[in-house]
Model the fold of this input.
Amino acid sequence: DAEWGTAIEPEAIRAIAKKTQPVKLIAIVHAETSTGVQQPIEPVSEIAKEFGALLLIDCVTSLGGIPVKADEWEADILYSGTQKCLSAPPGASPITLSEKAVQALSERKTLPNTWYLDLQKLEAYWDNRRAYHHTSPISMLYALHRALAITLTEGLENRWQRHERNGKALQKGLEALGLVLHAKEAVRLPVLTTVRIPEAVDGDLIKSELLANFSTEIAGGLGNLKGKIWRVGLMGESSTADNVLFFLSAFGLLLRKHGFKADVTAALESAAETLNV
Done:
């Protein structure tokens, strides 16, 4: 457990692992969209090895936007989604398993209580056994193939740098507007920014007017942060300098309309400096 907006400290994970030995699996979210936090994975990987546990990493939001190092992290199970930084339609989940994870699946004594997510049945469907499991969503596979081709054409390093640059520009611009970012700077995601809603500002009204007047949608807070923050995604093909500047202009105008003294000029200048435009 951790304060929302901060990373989970490795020692907290280690302490729980010590209490609950033996530990079969440690699961962690790499890019936490509820809080805007990028969780450092290397220390968690070391703890998993220390306790002989499998390491499962949720990379739904991070794949294609920030570095995902499955081999370096020695991840046993790593999965993602197609709809975020890969900019493909939703509906598929890329996944990779280590030999250790495959062995654990084959040795399990209790049958899975799910058909849809039974990885052994999925393996038998995809390998040379071709055992029936489902009707493959062919259109999704073509869409993912095209999205990956676009990603590789841009180059992974270039793509990561684009997300980093645009994310920082957005965040600097939001701060120049006079707003406070929620996630701690050291672990702040570039692809999803959490912004605290100022007092006396109706967060839901700003969201609805942003959508109605500027065709731009942002999300609100979840759980402990419901009604306290906005969540602004900047992922995949939507992560552009033009979108950063457009959003800051529109957002600032709406904030001013509703009584918050947002400095739109300062926000645009700050973002433009980071974007070098």
In short: The chain has a mean pLDDT of 96. Strands lie at 25-29, 31-32, 37-38, 54-58, 77-79, 95-97, 192-196, 219-220, 229-233.
